[in-house]
Amino acid sequence: MKKIIVAVMLLASFKAQSQTIDTSITRCIAAKITPIVYTSGIPSITDTITYVGVFDYKDDLKGNCVVNWVLLNINKNIIFNSYSLKQDEYESWSGSGAGLLTIIGNYLKVKFK
What we know:
Layout: H1 2-17, E1 29-40, E2 45-59, E3 65-73, E4 76-84, H2 87-92, H3 97-108
Antiparallel strand pairs: 1-2, 2-3, 3-4
């Protein structure tokens, strides 16, 4: 019986080492920006964007992070997209949602209010 318990413990320890930690934002974070005009779709729709938001990210804790972001107008989602952090962005990122919002704002070249 001791051999079975030891075998199960060893197997569990190997399995535990291969797991990854899921780090995801549990709520959307958004910030007001200086309004920008955005045109998208067919037929073409032009609207004024007033917010940029981060609603999810996947971080493997090994230098890879994909951020899902959105451009918003009041009560209307305009565009969803994803962005993979560059190595220098990942290394300078504090691990917070606000830090991701700053990185996405810089990527989109928007000005926060």
